[in-house]
Amino acid sequence: MKPTVRRALALCGVAQPIVFASLVAFESLLRPEYNQITDEISNLAVGPYGILQDINFWVSGVLLLGFSVGVRAGLASNGRAAWAGPGFVALAGIALFLVGFFAADLPGAPTTLHGTIHLVLSIVTFISLTAAVWTVRSAQMDDSRWSRFYNASLGFGIAAFLALLLLFGVSLPTEQGLVERILVGVLFLWVGVTGAELFVLDWTDPRDSRSQPATPQRSAP
Question: Whole-angstrom Cα distance, residue 220 to residue 167?
């Protein structure tokens, strides 16, 4: 894979959280009734300007898919974690892309098929990205080029796990939007920071760093 392609894939990770947060903020300004604390992000896809959030899901999903390819290219290991980690990122990207086709059920509204599918896909996205944080870190531990990122990736993994427990294990109906944003913020920030680290990574595979045999010296006559 050419270095320019690898870095473009890394930039997919850098761009994803920026694009997602920007579009959420922009649509929120267009809807003064929307509350960042109580309302979930998916609620923006229902009602006026909802197509903007659908586009946000589609674009973010594609960016995650590109990022997943870049992550795999940036891992020297060929072990299970080196394939499973990018695979979880790709799964999250596919699920997030599909979310844009199924509107969420607003609080108090009847349960619908499209709302149920939306919920399932959202859960797949959250769990897959949380799993990706841990499995990618496991593969990074076998690659010295990622050494300065070891502690940061551990911090992201712990934060993502705790945020996931908070979202699904604690009932906070009046702060549901805030709780969801904590998890989304941690996961997408990991994507962005990992993408930035991937962009400046030394793309030379450590397995190719072999010492060359010394040229035999001829003895003087």
Answer: 77
Question: Per residue in 11-49, pLDDT tens?
Answer: 999 999 999 999 999 999 999 889 989 999 999 999 889
Report whether 143 contacts 75 (CB < 8 A). Answer: yes
Asked if residues 186 and 165 have their Cβ atoms less than 8 Å apart, the reply is no
Residue 213, domain member (yes or no): no
Look at the chain and report how many structural domains it folds into: 1
Residue ranges making up the domain that contains 198 = 3-205
Q: The tokens of 5 are what?
A: 């392609």
Prediction pTM value: 0.88
